[in-house]
Amino acid sequence: MILQTEKFVFRELNGEASGHDWWHIYRVTKITKTIAQQENANLFICEMGALLHDIADEKLNSNEAEGIEKVREWLIHVNVDETSISSIIEIISTMSFKGGGGPPMKTLEGKIVQDADRLDAMGAIGIARTFAFSGAKNQIIHDPNIKPREHVTKEEYRTGKTTAINHFYEKLLKLKELMNTDYGKKLAETKHQYMEEYLEVFFKEWEGE
Ligand code: ADP
Ligand code: NI
Question: Where is each HD domain found (predicted)?
Fold first, then answer.
């Protein structure tokens, strides 16, 4: 079931350039498995949740409900049992960040997949994804006249009307505090530290130092 699902997700997401490509799923699935082992969670639910977490995204479907339906049909198609289907669907329908953070995840498995997704938005990879997303939205790197703002409206967030550097303040630097699991928190700490160091060097270089 997992192998078939990997192939399905690869077909759906291959070549997506806004940071939601197959390799994002590959990394999130790997971090998910690492955390799941540490937290003694249900590995099957975690792995399937991680693989499918972006398939229902609004960016890939006309609306979220249609995306969720696509995932449900897929799970039935590969013979996943009803209880597991409910758990997996519950995870992917509640976890998106959407600029403001949704309701807390109900299950341990959901908490783990959400942590893994957030961890992939942090650190060296998170920085790369931020600049890739910015480029795709014609957003500039930085403007010293734009003061760092923690709050960006849903519309500004959706349309990418902020700078790449501002994205650190509106999202990346907040993620550490949002981690659900102990192991996720530990991983987030290192990545957070790295982003702080990156910004320090960035601003120095900006002024020619
Ligand atoms: P996810 O739900 O996987 O966190 P998003 O769709 O919110 O993904 O974003 C995809 C990637 O692009 C993430 O790494 C995110 O931090 C980055 N990103 C999202 N919005 C912006 C933005 N306005 N400016 C720069 N990067 C962004
Ligand atoms: Ni994701």
Answer: 21-122
Residue 195: count other Cβ atoms within 10 Å of its Cβ: 20
Angle in degrees, 0-180, between the axes of helices 22-38 and 182-206, rounded to the nearest 10: 130
3-state secondary structure 98-150: CCCCCCCCCCHHHHHHHHHHHHCCCHHHHHHHHHHHHHHCCCCCCCCCCCCCC
Identify the band that residue 63 occupies on the pLDDT scale cut at 50, 70 and 90: confident
Q: Which two tokens stand for residue 203?
A: 């601003």
Q: How far is the CA of 167 from the centre of ligand 2 (A)?
A: 16
Question: What is the domain extent for residue 100?
Answer: 2-206
CA of 22 to the centre of ligand 2 (A): 10
Q: Whose CA is nearest to atom 27 of ligand 1?
A: 130
Residue 117 CB less than 6 A away from ligand 1: yes
**Predicted confidence band of residue 65 (pLDDT cuts 50, 70, 90):** confident
What pTM was computed for the model? 0.92
Is the CB of residue 121 below 6 angstroms from any atom belonging to ligand 1?
yes
**Number of compact structural domains in the chain:** 1
- For ligand 1, is residue 113 a contact (CB within 6 Å)? no
Chain segment 115-152, per-residue pLDDT in tens:
999 999 999 999 999 999 899 888 999 999 887 778 87
CATH code of the domain containing 60: 1.10.3210.50
